Task: structure prediction
Amino acid sequence: MIELKDVSYAYRVTDADGNVQMRPALKKTSLSIRAGEFVVLTGGSGCGKTTVCRLLNGLIPHYFEGELEGEVLLDGANVAAQPIYETAKRVGSVFQNPRSQFFNVDTTSELAFAAENQGRDPERIRRDIAVAAERLGLEPLLRRSMFALSGGEKQKIACGSVAVADSDVVVLDEPSSNLDVEGIEALRATLVLWKEQGKTVVIAEHRLFFLKGIADRVLVFRDGEVVRSLDAVAFAMLTPEECVGMGLRATDLNSVAFPAHSIDESPVVILKDVSFHYTKESGMDIPSLSLPQGQITVVIGRNGAGKSTLARALCGLNRRAKGSVVLGGETIPLSRMLSRCYLVMQDVNHQLFTDSALEEVRISVPETVPEKLREEKAREALRLVGMEEFSEQHPMALSGGQKQRVAIASAIAANKEILIFDEPTSGLDYVHMRQTADALQALRDLGKTILVITHDVELIALCADNVVRMDDGRIAESYCVNVENVPRLVSFFLNQPAQQPAVAVTT
Amino acid sequence: MQAQVDTFRITGERSILDPRVGMLAILTVSAVMIGGSITGIDFWLRLVCCVLPLLGLVALRRWRFAVVYAALYAFALMMEGAVFQLTSGAFNMVVMILGGLISRFFAPVVMGYCVMQSTTVAEFIAAMERMHVPSAVTIPLSVMFRFFPTIAEENGAITEAMRMRQVSGMRRGLVKRMEYELVPVMMSTVRISDELSQAALTKGLGGDTRRTHICEVGFRARDYVLLVLLSAVLVLFVVT
Amino acid sequence: MNESNKLTIKDLINIGVFTALYFVVFFVVSFVGYVPILMVLLPFICPIVAGIPYMLFLTRVRKFGMVLIMALILGLLELVMGRPWPVVLIAIAAGLCAELILKAGQYKSVKSCVLSSGVFSLWMIGMALPLFFGYRDSYLAGLVSGYGQAYVDTLASLTPDWAFFALIALCFVGGIIGGLVGSAVLKKHFKKAGMA
Result:
C-alpha cells in the first residue's frame, strides 16, 4: 500500500544568471495505491508524473534538491525518513534512458547488481537470474557486453534487474520513450507478468496504447495536479477526441485519424545502388529508391532493418557505403552528399556545439554568404521555427523540443535540400509531437525533401506523404499514405496481419 | 578523440589468474625490470621477470605477439649483455638507450596487457572488494570502467555530427575545433553521470550491508605457485 | 539532501565518471607524442587539455577526498597498464597537495582551483621518473665495473637532473594554463547553460 498525503514539491533550480529559483512540480496531491494495483500516470511533459515516480523510489528527497511538504508512505514507512537503500529493497525502478541506467559493463553483473547491493547470497542470486532470464526471455542476452545491446535489449535488462531483486513495487518512468515496436511488445509482456505476480506497478508514460488491458487505473496530471482519474473501463472507452482534448497520446493505434490530404505528383530524388555491408550476410542493399521531392517520406521497419544505416549513407556520413543519388538531373556520389543533406539526430544534444542558439545557426550558414549577411540569415531561420526570442540562450539550457527546433533552424540556414530526422518524437508528449509535425510541414512548404525515421504512428498520421518500409536491409514496400494504404501501415505497428474492418466475433 | 582506451575485458571465461596475483605480477615485473641492475643476481631475477609476460601471451594464445615479444627481448638483452661491451662512443649510446628502453619498459606493459586481457571488470572489482578496498575507491573504479565505452560512444556521435555540420575541419582553427568536440562530450558526461547516480541509488548502492558478488574469485593451485615465485623474486630483489 | 562532508554515492559516481573523462583526454592527447619533436612537449600539452575537464570536475563534488581518489585511481590504472610503479606514489602525493590547496580555498575559490590544477598535473611525472633516477642509476651502476667511473660520468651528464626539474615546471605551468582555459570554458558554456 502506497500513500501520498497532501504532497507538494518544488525543485530548486539555478538559472543562467546563477539565481536560485523554486520550480513547483506537484501541488497538494493525495493518492493511495493498493498492493498489486497497476497505475498509469500520464499527462504532458512537466505535469508532475515523473515527480511522483521520484517520490516513490526516494530520489526525492534523497537525490533531488527542493522543498517537500506532506509525506509519502510505503506500507506505513515514510520514504523521506528512511535511507534510500531501504526503499530500494522494496521498490525497483526503470528509467527512460536505456544508455544511462546500467552500472555494470556486462549483462549478468547488471542483473545481479541490485541483489548484490542487498548482500544476498550469491548462490541464490545466480538461481534468481536463471529464473528471471527464463521468464523474461533474457537467456540470449546473458554474459554479453551491455554496450553491444540495442536500446530495447538494454531496457529488458533493466526490467530483468528489477525482477532479480524481486521488488514488490516497480516504478517505471517513461520506459517506452526510446523503444521501437518490438521493444514495446517486450515491455508489455514483462508488465503483464508483473501484474500476474501481484506486484504493484506505477508507470509514468506518454504512449498509452500498450497499456490498455493492463492498467487498473489511469491518472491524468496537469500542472502538478491529478485532473482526472480513470478506471480500466473508462480508460478503454476513451475516444480519440477526448485524448486530444486532454493532450494525451492515442490509446488505440487503430483509431488514429489520418487526415485526408491530396498528394501531388512531384519530381523525385532517386537513390541508386546504395549498399553497405558490415559482414557478408548483414548489411543494406537498395538497388533503387525514389523519394518524392518536396514531400515527407517516413521510413519504418523493425530494429536492425537498416533505417539508420540508410540515413547515414544518404548523408554521406558512412564512408564505406557505396552508391549515388540523382538529384535534379545531377548524379551525385554518396561521398559528396554531406553538402546536400542535413541529419537531425535522435539525441539532438550531440549536434549542438556553440554557446548561443544564434551562433549555433550562424555557423551553418554557407561560407559563400558574405559575412555581414550571415547573422541576418541565422535570425531569419530562427524566426521560421519560432525560436527568435531564445537566440541569446545557451542551446543546452533549452528544452528538448526547443533544441530540436534550433537544429532545424540550422538545417534551414545551411540551405540543404534533403533533411533527415531520426526519431524526432521519441519521448515527446502529444503537444510537442504536434509541434514537431507542424515544423516538418513548414519545412515541406519551403520545398525541402524530408525523410523521417519513426515508430510514431501519430506523427505519421499528422504529416507523412509517403511510407517506405525496410526489412533486413532491403526496401520491403513503398507507398503513399492514402485511405487504402492506412490499414497496412497501422497493422505493421500492431504487429498483426492487416485486419478486415469490422468483423464481429461472437462467442 | 579517436583512440579507444584498452582496459579490462567486459565478458568472458574466468580469468587465468586471480586478479590479485595478476596485480602482484605486474608490480613485481615493473619493479624488477625497471629498477634492477644488469649484473649479479638481478640479472637472473630480470630474466625470470621477462619470461612471465611471455608465458602470459602463450596462455592467451597470442602467438604472433609472443614471438615478437621473445624476439625483442632476445635483441634487447643481447644489446645490454654483449654488444655494448664491444662498442664505444655514439654507437654505444644508441645501443644502451635502445636496449635499455625495450628491456626495462616493455615487459611491465605486456604483463599489464596480459592481466587485463584475461580479467573481466567484474572480477577485478570483486577482487578489490575481497581485499577490503573501501567503496570510496571501488565505486569510482567500477564507474570509470563502465564509462570508457560510453565516452567512446558519445564522442563517436559527436564527431559524426561535426562532420555532418561541416565543422570538423581545422578551418575555424584548432581551438574552436577542440571546443566543438570537448564541450559536448563534457555536457554528455554531466548528464549521464546524473542519470547513472539516480539509477545506482534506486538499486540500493551504498547500503549498510556488505555487498556480495556473483562472480567467482579465489586462489587456485596456479595462483599459489605464482604467488610463491613472485614473493621469492621480490624478496631477493629487495634484500640484495 | 545530505549536506555533510562525507562523500555520497552521487559524489563517488561523479569521481568515477570524471576520472574516466580525464584519463581519456590525457590518453588521447598523449598520442601527440608519436610525433617525435612534440614528445618533449607532452608534459606541457597534456595538462593543458586535461585541465579543462578537471575544472568541471571541481564544480561537481566540492568535498574532501575527491581529487585524492581521482589521483589514486589514475595511478592504479597506470600501474595496471604496466607503467613504472612509482607513478602511484607520485600520483597520491600530487593528489593530496592539490586536495589541500582546494580545501584552503574551500573548494570555491577560482584561484585555488587553478593552482590545484597545476599541482594535480604533476601526477604525470611519475611516468618519467625512472628515466632519470631509478633506471639511470642502476644502469650506470652496472656499467662502472666494465668502463670505469669517468665514462659513466659522461653518460650521466646526458640525462641531467635539471631536465627532470624542468619537466616538473613545464607540467605545472601546463596545468595552470589548463585550469585557466577550463574556467573560461565553464563560464562560457556551463554557467550559461545552468549546468555548473
